């Protein structure tokens, strides 16, 4: 069958089930019921502290077919997923589904567990290019991986679509009764936002820490009433892989030109205004957009209401300079962001659900004015791919892409028109991650295209000297520079299901031939 | 009518640079075969530049090629290979009168061979030695192909053994003489590039200084500098 973005998807996928096709970004709102939670209440005097991960596995009754979850705030420095999976593998337990908010290169040991059938399922909302993504693309995983968004995952957990048997929460600091935070300890990572739904809804919740402190572990982010066990390990992560020292604005002249054009679009469409809200990524070009927006805000003497998302030191500087009244932080990218979140009450943490869940009583993305997004590919219907690369291999997942595009009033994709000698604008993207109906503007170094559905923006931009062109023209320029690449050939085997934030299927990834 | 406010210098051995340069909208795009290209890349850069001029979307900018000097042993070949794709001019390093006269002859031959009208490709001498600076009045009259000249302070500083500063006090006389001579001859004058491409404020001050000394435009070594140059040289 075809879904509403014209993608051919199966009605039923083995080991996934019946497919609910994507039917539009706003098609699935309304009354919702949250799933119930099973827990074992804790008597006064009970001890939650457990000596080893192995002992925890006994206590939670780990067995074949279970789903275990992890958060990715320790990013490429995370030891916890590997420690837990190693202990599970040693027991000969099979058919485990790993529900991780993010998977990085450091999680390469998963590939062997996939090959040996210890891990047969993966659900993930961010996946870095690397061995695990490649193994999934090659069809080594028994069940199709499920690629979600940052808001879609908590939605799936809260609705019961994604049931977690055991949540293992890497805690940079914890006490023996399960209170945790991410702002203290040698593996400090800032907020633990992506783990909040896991803590609230999993059957068993385990805090894994290398910094056990006297009770209570203030400031508490995830509290004791959600936690069954606490286990101390030697180290939960490598600080070098967890945070960056400093993330800086790009110096690439092309990236800076794109950023400047994007900021001019924001200004010309009237979004540089008192109370404005803004989100951008941590990449060099995204930060360059922030730098240009900052310049406009200063010129116009404007104070924004909030900036949101993964927070960098650059956004902290904007807060401290009085350019925003507050920050909503779902992930701290650097040391400055961690310190600010810890010390400044205007720097608020937000759970993944609060950030982008479409089925709660209103996510923060709904209040976003301007969102700056990247793209691996974008098609002439403005559909965006951030999942598969030019060879059809998985290189990412939505993260917050389709959440923020849907929520924001002005969703701008910034990208070079060509990357690695390939055009970025195409007739059809390889995989749809974010529907074109939620993308408003594409900014490249060679021109700006406005979604024809946004006549209001077209009207505002038509009298400016910005290089506004139809998206088809950008596609033609790109193809003239690079040639038109041969289409990638795929087999029929579905290796990953791309869920839209509301749980419908926006696309599938098939195994490249 | 084409403007001559900015010239962006791009190394001829950089495919990415050659592809991206037009997006910055410089008035002149200088595809460099000389200082910016190491010896081992001279041959390949020459061919790359030739192909780029034939293929890339340079229609909104005036493409010129900075060839190697004749003394280097590469200059004559540069003229022979590049002439058929007809850049609007060649930039001539160490543009002394003798060399310009020799190039005039070589270029006329190459134009004839390529079926181009004689004189269709211009010459932009680079003034970067004390001798050429002092001979400028006669230099600009060597060939009717010369409509512009480029002052390269870095070359001059090297010859004189002086340390360059952002303020440029050490090149005040040279700049003034160059700009005034060009003005007297009715020619475009391009000032030396501002080499700190991250310092926009410094660039703007340097542009203002050059404009006030009589220059009509300025060279750039980074696409990010073009907007600032165009802000001052209107």
UniProtKB/TrEMBL annotation, chain A:
InterPro entries: Citrate_lyase_asu, NagB/RpiA_transferase-like. Its EC number is 2.8.3.10, 4.1.3.6. It catalyses: citrate + acetyl-CoA = (3S)-citryl-CoA + acetate; citrate = oxaloacetate + acetate. It comes from Desulfosporosinus acididurans. It is found in: Cytoplasm. GO terms for biological process: acetyl-CoA metabolic process. GO terms for molecular function: citrate (pro-3S)-lyase activity; citrate CoA-transferase activity. Keywords: Cytoplasm, Lyase, Transferase. This is Citrate lyase alpha chain. One of its GO terms (cellular component) is cytoplasm.
TrEMBL record, chain B:
It holds the Pfam family HpcH_HpaI. Keywords: Lyase, Magnesium, Metal-binding. Residues 5-221 form the HpcH/HpaI aldolase/citrate lyase domain. It is an enzyme of class 4 (lyase). GO terms for molecular function: citrate (pro-3S)-lyase activity; citryl-CoA lyase activity; magnesium ion binding. Mg(2+) binds at residue 128. Its cofactor is Mg(2+). This is Citrate lyase subunit beta. The gene is citE_2.
């Amino acid at each position: 069958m075809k879904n509403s973005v014209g993608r051919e998807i199966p009605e039923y996928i083995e080991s996934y089930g019946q497919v609910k096709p994507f039917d539009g970004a706003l098609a699935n709102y309304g009354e919702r019921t949250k799933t119930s939670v099973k827990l074992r209440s804790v008597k006064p005097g009970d001890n939650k502290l457990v000596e080893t991960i192995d002992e925890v596995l006994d206590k939670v009754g780990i067995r074949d077919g279970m789903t275990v979850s992890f958060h990715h705030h320790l990013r490429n420095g995370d030891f916890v997923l590997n420690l837990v999976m190693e202990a599970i593998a040693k027991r000969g337990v099979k058919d485990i589904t790993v529900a991780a908010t993010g998977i990085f290169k450091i999680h390469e040991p998963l590939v062997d567990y996939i090959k040996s059938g210890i891990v047969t399922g993966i659900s993930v909302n961010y996946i870095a290019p690397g061995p695990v993504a490649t193994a999934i693309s090659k069809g080594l995983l028994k069940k199709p991986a499920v690629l979600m968004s940052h808001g879609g995952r908590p939605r799936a957990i809260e609705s019961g679509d994604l049931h977690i048997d055991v949540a293992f929460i890497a805690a940079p600091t914890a006490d023996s009764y399960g209170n945790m935070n991410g702002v203290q300890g040698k593996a400090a990572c800032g907020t633990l936002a992506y783990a909040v739904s896991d803590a609230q809804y999993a059957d068993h919740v385990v805090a894994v820490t290398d910094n056990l402190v006297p009770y209570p572990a203030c400031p508490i982010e995830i509290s004791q009433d959600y936690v069954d066990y606490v286990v101390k390990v030697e180290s939960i992560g490598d600080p070098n892989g967890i945070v960056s020292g400093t993330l800086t604005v790009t110096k690439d002249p092309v990236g800076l030109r794109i950023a400047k054009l994007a900021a001019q679009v924001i200004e010309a469409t009237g979004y540089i205004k008192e109370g404005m809200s803004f989100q951008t990524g941590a990449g060099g070009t995204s930060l360059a957009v922030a730098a240009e927006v900052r310049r406009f805000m200063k010129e116009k003497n404007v104070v924004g209401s909030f900036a949101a998302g993964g927070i960098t030191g650059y956004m902290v500087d904007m807060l401290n300079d009085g350019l925003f009244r507050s920050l909503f932080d779902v992930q701290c990218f650097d040391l400055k962001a961690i310190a600010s979140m810890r010390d400044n009450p205007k720097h608020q943490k937000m759970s993944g659900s609060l950030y982008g869940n479409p089925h709660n009583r209103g996510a923060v993305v709904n209040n976003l004015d301007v969102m700056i997004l990247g793209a691996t590919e974008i098609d002439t219907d403005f559909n965006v791919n951030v999942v598969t690369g030019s060879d059809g291999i998985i290189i990412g997942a939505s993260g917050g892409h389709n959440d923020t595009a849907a929520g924001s009033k002005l969703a701008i994709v910034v990208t070079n028109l060509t990357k690695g000698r390939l055009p970025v604008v195409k007739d059809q993207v390889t995989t749809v991650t974010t529907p074109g109906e939620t993308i408003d503007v594409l900014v490249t170094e060679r021109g700006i295209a406005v979604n024809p559905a946004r006549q209001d923006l077209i009207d505002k931009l038509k009298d400016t000297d910005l290089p506004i062109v139809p998206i088809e023209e950008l596609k033609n320029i790109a193809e003239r520079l690079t040639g038109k690449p041969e289409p990638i050939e795929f087999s029929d085997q579905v290796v990953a299901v791309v869920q839209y934030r509301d749980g419908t299927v926006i696309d599938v990834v098939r195994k490249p031939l | 009518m084409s403007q001559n406010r900015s010239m962006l210098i791009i190394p001829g051995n950089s495919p990415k640079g050659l592809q991206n340069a037009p997006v910055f909208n410089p008035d002149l795009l200088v595809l460099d075969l000389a200082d910016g290209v190491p010896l081992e890349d001279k041959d390949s850069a020459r061919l790359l530049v030739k192909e780029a001029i034939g293929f890339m979307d340079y229609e909104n900018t005036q493409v010129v090629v900075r060839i190697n000097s004749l003394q280097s042993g590469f200059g004559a070949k540069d003229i022979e290979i590049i002439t058929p794709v007809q850049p609007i001019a060649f930039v001539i390093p160490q543009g002394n009168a003798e060399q310009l006269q020799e190039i005039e002859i070589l270029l006329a031959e190459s134009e004839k061979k390529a079926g181009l009208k004689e004189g269709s490709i211009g010459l932009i001498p680079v003034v970067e030695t004390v001798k050429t600076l002092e001979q400028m009045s006669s230099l600009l009259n060597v060939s009717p192909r010369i409509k512009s000249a480029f002052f390269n302070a870095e070359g001059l500083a090297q010859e004189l053994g002086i340390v360059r500063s952002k303020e440029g006090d050490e090149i005040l006389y040279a700049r003034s003489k160059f700009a005034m001579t060009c003005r007297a001859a009715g020619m475009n004058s391009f000032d030396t590039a501002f080499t700190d491409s991250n310092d926009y404020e410094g660039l703007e001050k340097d542009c203002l200084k050059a404009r006030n000394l009589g220059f009509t435009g300025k060279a750039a070594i980074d696409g990010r500098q073009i907007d600032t140059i165009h802000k001052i040289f209107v």
